[in-house]
Design goal:
By secondary structure, the chain is an alpha+beta fold. Helix content is 26%, strand content 55%. The protein contains 1 helix and 3 strands; from the N terminus they run βββα. Strands 1-2-3 form a 3-stranded antiparallel beta sheet, with helices on one face. 6% of the residues are buried.
C-alpha cells in the first residue's frame, strides 16, 4: 500500500523556515524553526 507523504516549504525568510507536512495530499502539520536545523530534520525523515 502506497501512502503519499512529504513536506513543502512554505516560507524561508532570514533563516526562519515554515514547512507543511502532508499525508495523502492533506496538510497534517505546519512547523516552523531555524532553516538549517529544520531542513536537516525534514531531510532525514523524508528523503
Amino acid at each position: 500500500m502506497n501512502i503519499n507523504v512529504g513536506f513543502a516549504i512554505l516560507a524561508d525568510i532570514n533563516n526562519k523556515m515554515t514547512a507543511a507536512i502532508y499525508v495523502e495530499n492533506q496538510i497534517v502539520a505546519i512547523i516552523a524553526g531555524p532553516s538549517d536545523i529544520l531542513y536537516e530534520k525534514l531531510k532525514k525523515v523524508f528523503l
